[in-house]
Amino acid sequence: MPILVFVTGTVNNSSIIDSATGQPVYNVSTPSGLGNNTTSVFNTQGNVVGQFKPGFLHDTVTRRGQTTRVSEWLVKKKIFARARQFVASNGKEYKWVFEWDIRGDKGVKLFECAMGRQVAHAHRKAFTQWSFSSSKAMSIDVSPDVLEILDDIVLSFIICESMTEQEETSAIVSSTT
Question: What is the pTM for the complete model shown?
Answer without folding.
Answer: 0.86
